[in-house]
Amino acid sequence: MFGGGAIGPCRHPRSVAMTEGATGAPMRLDPFELAEGERWYVVQALAKRETSALYHLSEQQFRTFLPVIAKTVRHARKTRLVRAALFPGYLFVALDLQRDRWRSINGTIGVARLVMTQTSPTPLPFGIVERLLDYRDEDGACRFDRDLVVGQTVRIVQGPLAELMGELVRLDANGRVRVLLDMLGGQVPATVERSALEAA
């Protein structure tokens, strides 16, 4: 359905604590926890307008999630690390179709459409968004380097070697990895940060 990086093996989502608000009604400590009757749905944004769609949906009190990754971009011989949408042009919204005025989503600034099947929004299978949420780091970006193993084919996603492929040959306890990169007609060894890799 989407472009972007691959989703790694499913891990158990973080447990979510519950408490009671001033009215005695249950109150979520985790803003991404689904209430009874809610599911995650897909919103297609206008080109390069994901953050605008996110903002304007949030202003309408919709709970949204835009998965982002840290990636390196090159311009004028310089590189810089930026946050980019994991699935360019898409974000997620939590809805209870019986409760929420979901039709207003299609008229929201930055939104192209709510992904539908005939006359109703199409819910995502359980576990997809939860898996992405569980892969966030302390800065909120998704990272897919947790399950790397020696011998695996990997892609560098950050730094001056971004987009090169290679074989993972060593992991150390300090977060550094040794990779044999496929370049210059052979395999060239390089040491990079573990966070700069993803499974190919």
TrEMBL record:
Residues 37-136 form the NusG-like N-terminal domain. Keywords: Transcription, Transcription antitermination, Transcription regulation. Gene3D superfamilies: NusG, N-terminal domain. SMART domains: NGN. It comes from the Bacteria. The keyword Transcription regulation applies. SUPFAM superfamilies: N-utilization substance G protein NusG, N-terminal domain (SSF82679), Translation proteins SH3-like domain (SSF50104). InterPro entries: NGN-like_dom (IPR006645), NGN_dom_sf (IPR036735), NusG-like (IPR043425), Translation_prot_SH3-like_sf (IPR008991). Pfam families: NusG. GO terms for biological process: DNA-templated transcription elongation; transcription antitermination. This is NusG-like N-terminal domain-containing protein. It comes from Rhodoblastus sphagnicola.
